[in-house]
Design brief:
InterPro entries: Flagellar_FlgE/F/G (IPR020013), Flg_bb/hook_C_dom (IPR010930), FlgE/F/G-like (IPR037925), LlgE_F_G-like_D1 (IPR053967). There is one protein chain. The strands form eight sheets. Strands 7, 8, 9, 12, 13, 25, 26, 27, 28, 29, 30 and 31 form a twelve-stranded antiparallel sheet that branches. Strands 15, 16, 17, 18, 19 and 20 form a six-stranded antiparallel sheet that branches. Strands 14, 21, 22, 23 and 24 form a five-stranded mixed sheet that branches. The chain has three domains: 101 residues, no CATH class; 127 residues, no CATH class; 169 residues, no CATH class. It is built from three helices and 33 strands. The protein is mainly β and 454 residues long. The chain starts with a helix and ends with a helix. The longest helix has 33 residues. A hairpin with a 2-residue loop joins β7 and β8. Helix content is 15%, strand content 38%.
Length: 454
C-alpha cells in the first residue's frame, strides 16, 4: 500500500460522492415535477487485490439506481383530462418533432411516461406538460369495443355526432287488473273494456282510432307514458302510448291492446291512434300467456316523422297485470336508443380508462381507450426530457394491455421525499469532506516522507 494509492482511492470516493450529490440535486429540483421518478445512488466497490494476508485499496463507483417502478402519491385534479396510473405501467406517447403546413409531425417512435397531466391542443391531440402526445385505441361506435391492439395517437374529432334513428323502445309496465277508466263502473259488467260497439261512427275493428272517435277512446283507455324518438336526421317524434283492456275471462285470461298516437291533427278523418297489433293476454297469476318479450311496430310514424320499424322490447316477463288500487298503468321503464345530432361540448376520462366526449344532445360517447405498457425491467428504461422514457435492450420490449388502473381527474406526484433527500445530502456532504481529509492527510505524509532526507 502506498500513499499515492490511498490518495487515488480517496479521489474516487470524492468523485462518487459528487455523483451522489448530483442525483440528490436532480431529485430535489424535480420534487414538484409531475410523474418524476427519483434517482438513488448505488455505490459499488472495485477491488485491486485482496488476499487473506494482504489487501490493497481499490476504488468506488457511484452508479445510478432508478426508481421507475416506485409510485408517487396520487393527487386530485380539477382538469377532467388529467389521469394517473394506480399500479404498474406507463402511458404510451409520441414526440412532436416539427410542424409542416400547420400540422404537427411526429417521429413515429413510442415513448413512455407516468406524467398524466394531459390536455387537448388546437389539433385535437392530448398533450401532457412534457410535450408528449397520448396514444390509445380507437373505439368502434357500434360495438363499443377497442379497434385492434396497436396504439395510435388519440385525436379528438370535433365534428357533429350524427343522429341515430330510434330502432328499439324499451318498455316495462304493470297493467291494473281492473282499470279505472273514465267509463269504468264497478256496477256495470265489462264497463272497463274498450269494445268495437262503443264507437260512433262505428269501427270494424280496433286497428285504428280516428279523430272523430278519439274522445271515446280516451275515456276507455289508460295512459301508458310517452317517449321521444328520432328519425335518421334527428327530427323528434313524441311517441305516446295508451293501454286498453279488450277482453275479460272468468278465472283470468284478460287481454289488452297497446296503441300509439300517430297524429295531433284535429281533422275528423285523420287517424289519431294506431294499434300496435299485439294481443297481451294474461293468465290468472298476472303473467303473459304466451310470453311477449318483444314485438315490432311496423312503420311507426308520428306527425309525419317516420321512424320505420321499431322493436318494442319488454324483456322477459316485464309486462304484468297485478292488482293496483289506483287502477292506473305503472310504467317502470320507458326509454329508446335514438338521439339527435350533437356538438362536442367537453371531453373527460372515465374510470375505465376511456376518453369520453359529451355532446350538446346529452349523449356521452366513448372516443378512445387509453393504452398502458408494462416492462419486465422498468428500472432499465432510458430517461428522456419531459419525464419520459425510452425502451432499451435491458428493459425488454413493452407489453401492451396490462398495467394498473387509470384514475380520472388525478395526477401522480413526484416520488421524491424532500426530508429523505436532505438526510442523504448530509451523509453525502460528510462523506465528501472525509474524502478530502484523506487526500490532505496523504499529501502531508508524502511531504513528510520527502523531508526525511533533510
Amino acid at each position: 500500500m502506498s500513499f499515492f494509492g490511498s490518495m487515488t482511492t480517496a479521489i474516487t470516493g470524492i468523485r462518487a460522492q459528487s455523483s451522489a450529490l448530483g442525483h440528490i440535486s436532480d431529485n430535489i429540483a424535480n420534487s414538484q415535477t409531475i410523474g418524476f421518478k427519483r434517482t438513488d445512488t448505488n455505490f459499488q466497490d472495485i477491488v485491486t487485490a485482496s488476499t487473506s494476508r494482504n489487501h490493497l485499496p481499490g476504488a468506488v463507483l457511484a452508479a445510478p439506481s432508478f426508481t421507475n417502478n416506485v409510485q408517487g402519491s396520487i393527487d386530485a385534479s380539477e382538469v377532467p383530462t388529467h389521469m394517473a396510473i394506480n399500479g404498474s405501467g406507463f402511458f404510451v406517447v409520441s414526440a412532436r418533432v416539427a410542424t409542416v403546413d400547420g400540422n404537427p409531425v411526429f417521429d413515429n417512435v413510442n415513448y413512455y411516461t407516468r406524467r398524466g397531466d394531459f390536455s387537448m391542443d388546437k389539433y385535437g391531440y392530448l398533450v401532457n406538460g412534457g410535450g408528449y402526445t397520448l396514444q390509445g385505441l380507437a373505439i368502434d361506435p357500434v360495438t363499443g369495443n377497442p379497434v385492434g391492439d396497436t396504439p395510435s395517437r388519440i385525436q379528438i374529432n370535433r365534428d357533429f355526432l350524427a343522429a341515430r334513428t330510434t330502432s328499439t323502445i324499451s318498455y316495462k309496465a304493470n297493467l291494473p287488473a281492473w282499470p279505472k277508466t273514465v267509463n269504468a263502473d264497478p256496477a256495470i259488467a265489462n264497463s272497463e273494456l274498450l269494445t268495437v260497439g262503443r264507437f260512433t261512427p262505428a269501427l270494424a275493428d280496433l286497428s285504428v282510432i280516428s279523430a272523430a272517435n278519439e274522445d271515446i277512446f280516451l275515456d276507455n283507455s289508460l295512459s301508458g307514458g310517452a317517449v321521444t324518438g328520432y328519425d335518421e336526421l334527428g327530427a323528434p317524434a313524441n311517441v305516446q302510448f295508451r293501454w286498453a283492456k279488450i277482453d275479460n275471462e272468468d278465472g283470468g285470461g284478460d287481454t289488452w291492446n297497446l296503441f300509439y298516437k300517430t297524429s295531433d291533427s284535429a281533422t275528423g278523418a285523420t287517424d289519431k291512434w294506431v294499434n300496435v297489433g299485439q294481443d297481451y293476454a294474461f293468465d290468472g297469476q298476472g303473467r303473459l300467456t304466451p310470453a311477449v318479450d318483444s314485438t315490432t311496430i311496423t312503420g311507426l310514424t308520428v306527425n309525419g316523422v317516420s321512424l320505420g320499424n321499431v322493436t318494442l322490447d319488454h324483456g322477459a316477463s316485464n309486462v304484468t297485470q297485478f292488482e293496483d288500487d289506483n287502477g292506473t298503468v305503472k310504467t317502470t321503464e320507458l326509454d329508446q336508443n335514438g338521439y339527435p345530432s350533437g356538438e362536442l361540448v367537453s371531453i373527460a376520462v372515465s374510470e375505465n380508462g376511456r376518453i369520453t366526449g359529451t355532446y350538446s344532445n346529452g349523449k356521452t360517447v366513448d372516443l378512445a381507450q387509453v393504452s398502458l405498457a408494462t416492462f419486465n425491467a422498468s428500472d432499465k428504461l432510458k430517461k428522456l426530457d419531459g419525464t419520459a422514457f425510452a425502451a432499451t435492450q435491458e428493459s425488454g420490449e413493452p407489453m401492451l394491455g396490462g398495467g394498473g388502473d387509470i384514475i380520472a381527474s388525478a395526477r401522480e406526484a413526484s416520488n421524491v421525499d424532500i426530508a429523505d433527500e436532505f438526510s442523504k445530502l448530509i451523509v453525502t456532504q460528510q462523506a465528501y469532506t472525509a474524502g478530502t481529509r484523506i487526500v490532505t492527510t496523504a499529501d502531508e505524509l508524502i511531504r513528510e516522507t520527502l523531508n526525511m532526507k533533510r
